[in-house]
Request: fold
Amino acid sequence: MPFAPALHSEWLKIRTLPSLAAGPAAVVLVTAAFTALAGLDESAGVDSDPLFASLFGVVLGQIAAVTFGAQAVSAEFRGGALRLSLSAVPHRGRWFAAKALAVGASALAAGLLAGCASLAVGWAVPGSRAGGPNWGEGLRGVVGCGVYMALMALFAAGLTALLRSGVMTLSILVPFLLVVSFVIGGVSGTAADYLPDKAGQVVLHSTSGGALGPWTGLAVTAVWAAAALAAGAWSVRRRDA
Reply:
């Protein structure tokens, strides 16, 4: 099967399977909802950075993104679904590329919507920062949110293909992301700056005290995602379906 029909097939899976179709919607809803909660809580501790205060929900919205990426791939390892997929697309590398593109594009669209919704909620909730982000910062934050969500979903998808288990992937990534975000998230100038979530979230801040800028931080996250996808592609090509 050529690449375009393979991509269309993977897109149909995401659109029609309830467990997958709910993933992008969850990214938007969780991100916007937790931004609103943070805006209502004056003790949230994010007011010093108006851009991050308006996109604070990304901290938990990313959990929905990695869950979506993990579920999109782990569904292939249940009930012999992978054998059916590979019977339609025998070239395993082509199939996995189509899967990754479908996941990444869906997460990118959801992330852009989440960024717009979160920014709007962050500006609108009572008690929001009077000096919110300007339009230039807001646009950068929305684009960065979309790219970041896509990269994290792809990171989870690649890791799931390697481990062949969505449960195992989430049992690693969810505690990792929460620990990084809430325990060592304030540490700058160390190797922690190059962890996938901390590097990628620089684009969501008005300023950065670390070694990375907004786009170099996303580039670091992209390297992590590419490495995970490469490992996942190797596993798909080398191991039995």
Remarks:
- The mean pLDDT is 87.
- Residues 105 and 205 are 24 Å apart (CA to CA).
